[in-house]
Every structure is written in C-alpha cells, then in structure tokens.
Amino acid sequence: MLQLRGVVQHYEWGDQRAIPEFLGAEPDAKPWAELWWGTHRAGPSLVMNGNGSTPLADTVGDLSFLVKIIAAAKPLSLQTHPNDEQARSGFNEENEIGIPLDAPNRIYRDALPKPELLIALTPFDAICGFRNLDLTFQLCARYGWKELEDHLRADGLAETVRWALTTGPRQLPENMPAWAARIAALYPGNGGVLVALLMHHLRLTPGEAIFLGAGNVHAYLSGTGLEVMANSDNVVRAAFTRKHVDVDEFLAVARFDEIDPPIMQPVQESANVFGYPANTPRFGAQRIEVSGSHLLSATHEAEIVVCATGDAGTVKRGHAVVLRKGDELHLTGDATVFRTWGNR
C-alpha cells in the first residue's frame, strides 16, 4: 500500500468548501473544483514515503485510468467526449497544425477516448443525454416553448441543436424549470439553454451513478461526486464556459440518440460490496461499505482506493492509496471506500 497525494484543480465552477473539508484542509476562498489521482500529465499524483515523495508513474507506470473527486458549485460546460478514432484523428490533426498541448484552443490533449463514470457522493444534479421527442413535445406544450417545438418538428433533433448553438443570442423562454432558469441567469441568451431543455435533467442520490460513453452530451450542474475515467482530458465544449468552444467539432462528435434517463444503480456483489457495471473495458469501480472488518485483495496491476467517508483504519476520509496486484488492504471501522482499477 502506497499513500497518494492528489492534485487539486481550481476551475471557476468549483465549490469552495467540499474538497478542502474532504481533505481536512482550511478553505481559502478559491474554487476547489477537482482532486485528481493518476498519472495524467495535467495533474500527476505523488507517492508519499519516508524520504518525501516520488511521481506515481515511477512506481506503477502510466496508468490507463484516472480518479477524481469533483465538486461543482456552478454548472460545467455543455460538452461531449470523442471515441477512439475521433481522439486519434483530432490529436494528430492538432499536432500537425502545430497547436501546443497546453494552448487554450487545444481540444485534443491526448489520443485517447474519455468514457467516464460519476458516482454521487452528495445529491448531484446533471443534464445528460436527449430524451424521447414525444416527451419533449409534451413539455413544449406544457411550458409554451413554441419556437423550440416548431424547429424540432420541422428539422429534427440534430438540426435543432445546430440551430440553437450557431445562431444567437437567442430569445430564451420565460417559463422554464428552476434548474434551466439558473443556467439562463448565468448565461443569458445562450442557445445552449435550449439544448439543455431537450435533455434529461437528473437528480442523483448518493451512491447512484451516471456512465458517459463517447458522444454523450452532458453538463454537470451541482454536487460532489467521485469520477473514474480513461486517462484522458479530451473535452469538446459547446456552451456554458469561458474555455474554448468549438461548436462544429461538438456537432461532429455528439450523438443525438434518444435515450432513457441514464441513471445507473449499483449492483450488490456481496454483503457490503457494490459494483458499477460501466459499459467500457477501460476501467472498473466498486463501493465498499465497511462496517467492522473487510479484507481487500488487489487483482489488477494497479488499483486506486479512496476513502470517501469515515475511518477504515488503514485509510480514512480524504485518503487515497495505490495497490499493486496481490497487495492486501485490511479495512476496519465504519467507512465508505471506493476501489477503482484500469485495464491496459
């Protein structure tokens, strides 16, 4: 077992208190948006030892997965992520053009897709995926969204999204759900609000999850959660941000399937272990509810274990450790612990 030090990302939408409290640190009025554990170049973790610290990559190599705590006080960007082919092509093209990897207008910062799993630690709000059009037509009639309904009926979903994002500023409806009105107040006239009205609004309770595959359109709105994802930072943004937006690339990458509300319920695997069967071979995750004693045996080349609440003896709230295949971790006490791993 090796103790990890994560890397904090101070994005403007971050919560000022959630991650400092998680780490037992004093809030400093900065927005603490994300806490990363992994080997990604944008935030590589350190392994702590008696002589100081060393990069995690020196111990386990380049991990194929990345683990984060995310704490959102404001909405994140309306975004999607590429598949394997799109990521490779986009990365190579931006390299050929000569866009530096850390340039603000860089979209593809690596050649990897970015499937991700978010597990709610607190009540968590998000918009995710496009709902059935018949249900959207019902909402249009109920709330009086006539212009949006007219475009949907005439042009279909994909072209309506294109219209909303490429013409503006838009005259937004006055009658909207509170979550959408909050976004509109932050981004007045932004056509992304119209896109949001076409999507599922999800309210996750702690322990519930969302899995986001390639092309899924989404935006996190508020709450704290644990994310597990492929070791990538490829994000294609369309709205609700000061970061680089590329609507054409967003429309090329996004999927416009009509889907059911994509909330994932954990699957109980044993008395106190709950799995999250994400539809990807790139990573996996379990939640362990420690009450008394639990022996965790690592079965993958590298696993990252995070204690989200309580005290499990060898780890307590805010602690993260890395295990190698064959390592054992004895957990004793009362705590919620997440076990995560990747597949090379």
Write the layout of secondary structure elements.
Blueprint: E1 2-5, E2 7-9, H1 18-23, E3 34-37, E4 46-49, E5 52-55, H2 56-60, E6 65-72, E7 78-80, H3 84-97, E8 116-120, E9 124-130, H4 133-143, H5 146-166, H6 178-186, H7 192-196, E10 199-204, E11 209-212, E12 218-230, E13 236-239, H8 247-253, E14 263-264, E15 267-270, E16 273-275, E17 283-297, E18 302-313, E19 320-324, E20 328-342
Antiparallel strand pairs: 1-4, 1-19, 2-3, 3-6, 4-5, 6-12, 7-13, 8-11, 8-12, 9-10, 9-12, 11-14, 15-16, 16-17, 17-20, 18-19, 18-20
Helix pairs in contact: 4-5
Q: Rounded to an integer, what's the Rg over CA atoms?
A: 21 Å
Instruction: Give the total of beta strands.
Output: 20
* Total count of domains: 3
CATH level-four homologous superfamily name of the largest domain: Jelly Rolls
The CATH architecture of the largest domain can be named as: Sandwich
Q: What proportion strand?
A: 35-45%
Spell the H/E element sequence.
EEHEEEHEEHEEHHHHEEEEHEEEEEEE
In the predicted model, the low-confidence regions spanning at least 5 consecutive residues are none
Helix content: 10-25%
The third-level CATH topology of the largest domain is Jelly Rolls
Distance N to C terminus: 21 Å
Strand order of the largest sheet: 5-4-1-19-18-20-17-16-15
Give the overall average pLDDT. 96
Instruction: Kindly name the structural category.
Output: alpha+beta
Tally of alpha and pi helices: 8
Could you say which overall geometry the principal axes of the C-alpha atoms support?
globular
CATH class of the largest domain: Mainly Beta
Instruction: Give the biggest beta sheet.
Output: 9 strands, antiparallel
